[in-house]
Structures are given as structure tokens and as C-alpha cells.
């Protein structure tokens, strides 16, 4: 079961790198007076909320079980 | 044009900007609603399952579902944000001498095209559909001159008629400034070639010879020639109107 968590953390790592570079590019091409800071803030809050909720739920779940055991293999 | 005052990145001088316009917000409604639906749909499904088949949401399924939903929401948020960036940074700038189109494609794609206003030949505004008519937004199609002429489309901008007339006005101003207006009219066959020189020299235009076939001279040219000999302050009589074709101003 830990395999799922490792996959998810790996996804999170790639996702974070992609977003950091993406947001950096967006900031570089800003037009003065635009609404980009607010949009980025909302976007980051949303991402943060999703990750926080996921961490909260996953921390309460049992990840120690063996996958073949669970699948009755 | 509320965004008139916005400065522009790069080399464009702010004082030269006449129109600075984003795509109309209504053109983003479809994408926005789709994203909202994608965000809300899993919640509705989960609530339904919770109240009907609660047994499913246990053990392995719950673990798996938590991670999958997390990935799903993160990807949906990113896709929505990228779509918004693409919409928001689609910018059109009309300067005194050029039209600049900045087309944003996600985080990592940006296409900037520039068109000289001297190359503009025809400008059309197009409002089509229920939403565009309701919110008064649409496309402006700028046709360019030249052998490899191609249409330059300014998409989904507010008040397209206003923008198209402004582009044409700027085009005419630029032609006047460059002294090309007369040449352009001559090239289009509106004026007789060389007529400007005759006016400048203040010489009377020689009458059209009878031997010259009438079909070779466009009717517009004739009216211009008649302007020299007739007064322009008179009225057009009913009889003249019924003549059709040539009308002498009395």
C-alpha cells in the first residue's frame, strides 16, 4: 500500500516543479496592472487546500496493509 | 476600452498605444463552466455513494480514492489556470502604425504577431451568436494587401465595430501622414493616375476627348473631373436623380 503513497508523492514532486516553473514564466511576462497576483494567490490556495486535505485524510488511513493480502491473492 | 491605460511589455512605446484590449470575459464562460462542473461532479458522486452504498467507501477503495481524487483535483486546477492564463494574456494592441497580437498558449507558449497598418486593406467586424450579440463582443477581421495577403483575426474582443472603425481611421491617418493616400486611391482605381499633380499645379483638367472610349474611364473619375468645373454647394434636382449614372451638382 505504501506504493500508492510513493506514487502520489512522486506525482506531487513533478507537479510542484512544473507549477513553480510555470508560475515563474507567468510572472516574467506580466503586464503592469494586471490581475495575475490575485489569480496566482487563488490558484496556490486551492492547490494548498487540496494537498492539505489529502494529507489529513491519508494520515488517518491505514497504509500498512499488504496489497496482495487486501486483494485476497 | 477600459484597459486603455495599461502599459505594454517590450519595446512598444506606451504613448503610441491607441487601443489595448483583452478578449471579452464572456468568451471564457464555456471553459469556466466546464472546469466548475469537473470540480463539482466528483463531490456529487461521492455524496451520492456515501448516502446509498457506504460500504464501498472502505479499506483499499478509500485509500485509493483519496489519492486519485487528489491528483484529479490538482490536474483540474492546473488545466483551468492554464486556460485562464491563455485567455487573459491574449492581448491585442493597436498603435498609430501597427497592430500587435499577443497570443498566449498555456504557460510556455507565446506568439506575438505584428502587422503594419499600411498593409491594411479592409476591416470587418463580426458579431455572431447569442452570447456575442448579448454581450456585444466579436471578431475583427483585418484583410491585408499584397500577393500573400492573409486575414488577421482579432478574436472575441468587446465592441468590435468600434475597434474596426478605429483601425480604419488610423490606417487613413497613416496614409495621409506618409503621403500615400492618393497613391493608394490611384492604385485602387478610384482616382485617375496623376490627378494630384494637376491639382497641385492649379491647372484645369483637360476635357476628355470624344475619341476616347467611355468604358475605359471609371464613372467615379468623371465625377472628380466635374468637381473642378461645377460648384459643390448646390442641390441635386429630382430630374438629375432620375437620370441615373452621372449627376451634375448645380
TrEMBL record, chain A:
<keyword id="KW-0472">Membrane</keyword>
<keyword id="KW-1133">Transmembrane helix</keyword>
<keyword id="KW-0812">Transmembrane</keyword>
<protein>
    <submittedName>
        <fullName>Uncharacterized protein</fullName>
    </submittedName>
</protein>
<feature type="transmembrane region" description="Helical">
    <location>
        <begin position="6"/>
        <end position="24"/>
    </location>
</feature>
<feature type="transmembrane region" description="Helical">
    <location>
        <begin position="36"/>
        <end position="57"/>
    </location>
</feature>
UniProtKB/TrEMBL annotation, chain B:
<keyword id="KW-0472">Membrane</keyword>
<feature type="compositionally biased region" description="Polar residues">
    <location>
        <begin position="209"/>
        <end position="235"/>
    </location>
</feature>
<keyword id="KW-1133">Transmembrane helix</keyword>
<feature type="region of interest" description="Disordered">
    <location>
        <begin position="203"/>
        <end position="250"/>
    </location>
</feature>
<keyword id="KW-0812">Transmembrane</keyword>
<dbReference type="Pfam" id="PF03703">
    <property type="entry name" value="bPH_2"/>
</dbReference>
<feature type="transmembrane region" description="Helical">
    <location>
        <begin position="28"/>
        <end position="52"/>
    </location>
</feature>
<feature type="transmembrane region" description="Helical">
    <location>
        <begin position="64"/>
        <end position="89"/>
    </location>
</feature>
<feature type="compositionally biased region" description="Basic and acidic residues">
    <location>
        <begin position="236"/>
        <end position="250"/>
    </location>
</feature>
<protein>
    <recommendedName>
        <fullName>YdbS-like PH domain-containing protein</fullName>
    </recommendedName>
</protein>
<feature type="domain" description="YdbS-like PH">
    <location>
        <begin position="104"/>
        <end position="164"/>
    </location>
</feature>
<dbReference type="InterPro" id="IPR005182">
    <property type="entry name" value="YdbS-like_PH"/>
</dbReference>
Amino acid at each position: 500500500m505504501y506504493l500508492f503513497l510513493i506514487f502520489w508523492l512522486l506525482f506531487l514532486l513533478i507537479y510542484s516543479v512544473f507549477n513553480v516553473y510555470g508560475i515563474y514564466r507567468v510572472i516574467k511576462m506580466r503586464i503592469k496592472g494586471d490581475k495575475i497576483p490575485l489569480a496566482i494567490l487563488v490558484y496556490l490556495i486551492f492547490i494548498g487546500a487540496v494537498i492539505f486535505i489529502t494529507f489529513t485524510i491519508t494520515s488517518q488511513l491505514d497504509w500498512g496493509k499488504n496489497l496482495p493480502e487486501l486483494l485476497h491473492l | 476600452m477600459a484597459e486603455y491605460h495599461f502599459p505594454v511589455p517590450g519595446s512598444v512605446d506606451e504613448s503610441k498605444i491607441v487601443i489595448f484590449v483583452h478578449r471579452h470575459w464572456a468568451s471564457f464562460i464555456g471553459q469556466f463552466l466546464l472546469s466548475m462542473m469537473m470540480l463539482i461532479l466528483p463531490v456529487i458522486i461521492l455524496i451520492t455513494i456515501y448516502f446509498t452504498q457506504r460500504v464501498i467507501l472502505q479499506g483499499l477503495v478509500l485509500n485509493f480514492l483519496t489519492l486519485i481524487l487528489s491528483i484529479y483535483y490538482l490536474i483540474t486546477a492546473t488545466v483551468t489556470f492554464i486556460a485562464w492564463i491563455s485567455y487573459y494574456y491574449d492581448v491585442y494592441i493597436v498603435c498609430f502604425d501597427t497592430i500587435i497580437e499577443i497570443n498566449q498558449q498555456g504557460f510556455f507558449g507565446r506568439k506575438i504577431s505584428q502587422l503594419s497598418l499600411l498593409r491594411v486593406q479592409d476591416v470587418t467586424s463580426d458579431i455572431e451568436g447569442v452570447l456575442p450579440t448579448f454581450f456585444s463582443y466579436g471578431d475583427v477581421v483585418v484583410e491585408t494587401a499584397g500577393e500573400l495577403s492573409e486575414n488577421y483575426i482579432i478574436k472575441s474582443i468587446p465592441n468590435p465595430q468600434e475597434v474596426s472603425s478605429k483601425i480604419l481611421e488610423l490606417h487613413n491617418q497613416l496614409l495621409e501622414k506618409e503621403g500615400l493616400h492618393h497613391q493608394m486611391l490611384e492604385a485602387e482605381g478610384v482616382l485617375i493616375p496623376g490627378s494630384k499633380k494637376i491639382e497641385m499645379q492649379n491647372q484645369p483638367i483637360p476635357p476628355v476627348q470624344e475619341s476616347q472610349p467611355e468604358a475605359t474611364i471609371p464613372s467615379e473619375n468623371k465625377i472628380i473631373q466635374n468637381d473642378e468645373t461645377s460648384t459643390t454647394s448646390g442641390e441635386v434636382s429630382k430630374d438629375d436623380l432620375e437620370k441615373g449614372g452621372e449627376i451634375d451638382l448645380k
